[in-house]
């Protein structure tokens, strides 16, 4: 697979693997052995960038906890020096799966030490502040991350779900390698960050690049999703209204797919990869076929005219189905 650079030096595969869905947010967790197999298949396909987080904890079919960092750590341990592992700290799970932001130095250190143990590694390649904490200034968080870098416990740091002002202030204390934000054909609001990222030489890691699977064209309606364990059961793009708003886009993607001998998901990822050289999408999947499909998106070239066609549809459509991210 082609590679890209996050920040000034962190080289990763052009498409990374978001590991969250293997155990969290998309229904009952995949069997641990199968999930480890999937990650190792990804390595064989050329993926070198794997994303997880402390709070990605789901439930196996037998009711036991499915801890994402543990399976990522076990899967990658034999080839740890050949891959880039990213994880996140600074939020904890509260009651009823609600999360609580805590980016205090003590909390971040506790989270980091636990992540190192679960991932079976001495150093984390890219460590994110998972969400902003209103009680902590960006300079304090950046100084904490700088300390971790000096100790050799992390190589690079980043922020997920951040505001421009926060990014600028934090970067002035300790250079940020990447931010992680929602970005897809159906959520383009975060593109406003691009000029700042170019000014500061910061990479952009795109989560939910397929709008939680909607852009693959494989899922219709919410009825098929577990109401308790699958976040897609309440996502607006899967409602009849959301699908109707996206009808023109999905029709265009279907046409381009035939023209390019690709899938709608591949066209969606290729569009993103064409936008900026520092964007790295991290789609997730539990299926080997989809792993291969997503990886091959990096080989698809869209012309300027193709991208223009897509952008014109986006510019006059009504399907901003995701609410603005209040934590930013």
Automatic annotation (TrEMBL):
GO terms for cellular component: cytoplasm. Residues 15-314 form the NADP-dependent oxidoreductase domain. Keywords: Oxidoreductase. GO terms for molecular function: oxidoreductase activity. SUPFAM superfamilies: NAD(P)-linked oxidoreductase. Gene3D superfamilies: NADP-dependent oxidoreductase domain (3.20.20.100). This is Aldo/keto reductase.
């Amino acid at each position: 697979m082609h590679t890209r650079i996050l920040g000034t030096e962190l080289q990763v595969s052009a498409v990374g693997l978001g590991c969250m869905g293997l155990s969290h947010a998309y229904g009952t967790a995949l069997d641990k052995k199968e999930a480890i197999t999937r990650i190792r298949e990804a390595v064989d396909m050329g993926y070198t960038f794997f994303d997880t987080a402390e709070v990605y904890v789901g439930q196996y079919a037998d009711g036991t906890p499915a801890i994402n960092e543990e399976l990522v750590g076990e899967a990658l341990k034999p080839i740890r020096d050949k891959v880039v592992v990213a994880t996140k700290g600074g939020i904890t799970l509260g009651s009823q799966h609600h999360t609580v932001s805590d980016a205090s130095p003590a909390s971040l250190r506790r989270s980091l030490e636990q992540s190192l143990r679960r991932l079976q590694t001495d150093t984390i390649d890219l460590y994110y502040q998972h969400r902003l904490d209103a009680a902590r200034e960006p300079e304090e968080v950046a100084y904490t991350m700088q300390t971790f870098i000096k100790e050799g416990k992390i190589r690079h740091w980043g922020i997920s779900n951040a505001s421009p002002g926060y990014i600028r202030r934090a970067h002035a204390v300790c250079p940020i390698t990447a931010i992680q934000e929602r970005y897809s054909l159906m959520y383009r609001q975060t593109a406003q960050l691009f000029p700042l990222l170019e000014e500061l030489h910061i990479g952009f890691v795109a989560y939910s690049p397929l709008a939680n699977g909607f852009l693959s064209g494989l899922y219709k309606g919410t009825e098929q999703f577990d109401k308790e364990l699958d976040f897609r059961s309440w996502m607006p793009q899967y409602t009849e209204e959301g699908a109707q708003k996206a009808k023109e886009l999905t029709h265009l993607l279907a046409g381009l797919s035939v023209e390019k001998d690709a899938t709608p998901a591949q066209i969606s990822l290729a569009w993103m990869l064409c936008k900026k050289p520092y964007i790295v999408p991290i789609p997730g999947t539990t299926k080997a076929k989809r792993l291969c499909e997503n990886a091959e998106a990096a080989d698809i070239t869209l012309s300027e005219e193709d991208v223009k066609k897509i952008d014109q549809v986006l510019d006059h459509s009504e399907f901003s189905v995701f609410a603005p991210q209040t934590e930013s």
